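Write out the 3D structure for:
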Amino acid sequence: MRIALVHDFLTQLGGAERLLQVFHQMFPDAPVFTLVYDERKTAGRFRGWDIRASFLQRFSRVVNYKWLLPLMPRAIESFDFAGFDLVLSDSSAFAKGIKVHAPAVHICYCHTPTRYLWQEPDEYVAKLGIIFFLKPLVQLYLMKILRKWDYRAAQRPDLLIANSREVQTRIQKFYGRGSTVVYPPLDTDFFRPTIPKADYFLTATRLEPYKRVELVIEVFNELGWPLKIAGSGSAFEGLKALAKNNVEFFGRVGDEKLRDLYSGARAFIFPALEDAGLVVLESLACGTPVIAYGRGGVSEFVRDGENGVLFDEQSAPSIRQALQRFEARVFSGESLRAGAEAFGKEKFISAIQAIVSKAI
């Protein structure tokens, strides 16, 4: 059986790229089709793979690939899957829109319906930094043209898999389609306690505006408690300027360093409205409780008072109250890890294999 994998962009490292690595582990001979590939920004993680980038690749060397947005639907539709029996895509934007013809089967693992089209269009436009009088034109394109394409694209896969019940609800709401929930794969063999606990709190994520890391910094600036932040992104410099001396930035870190940071932290703080939040599971597997915003997919992993503390609002006062509640509780690292093991990679692989076997 000939299998192809499809991924939106290979230009960063995050939870979606961890999932792609598991797909590739399952199907090591499968080529990976993607809109744009940047080996440097992915730290060589995919070196040696059969990566097949779209025609946007040559333009991405001279302009930021995000400015190529109007060309992305055409680029994703340009891939030819003739001769493949199964195409397995994972998508939070364009990959679901590939055109696959029978008898081949297209299964899409959906991280979320495209955020900047259905949930955060204003924030996305603001992040582009375009001249103010062009913003209405960009918003018109997103809402009137690209959103319609995105809806049509979501009807193309033969099967949709959601990475959480939260995303399953969004798929039904925005795309009018049913889906099967398969939680993302957690590598419990790798993510385990490695060092003793130390006196600091941790947040690790891509530093983008919607992640709301500025709220955590605001609270820790007031408290003066040690906070470590791992990750890079467009908000990095602004967040660094906001932080006081008790806040330490690490930038993008390797998996071994991240595992140590998880293991040594008193708690992992996660203020974002997230689709699933694999980093939350990684923290729990390292024996570290989680303080998180209680909406979105994270609430499916974090149980208030059992393996962490949930807060109700994305606000500094709400995070401060959650920290106070955390201080009054004691968590067992062994229990935290035992709970995380239910989301192990082997369970994910078995679930995907069962779906594929039934579909082919």
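The chain has two domains: 3-185+345-359, 201-342.
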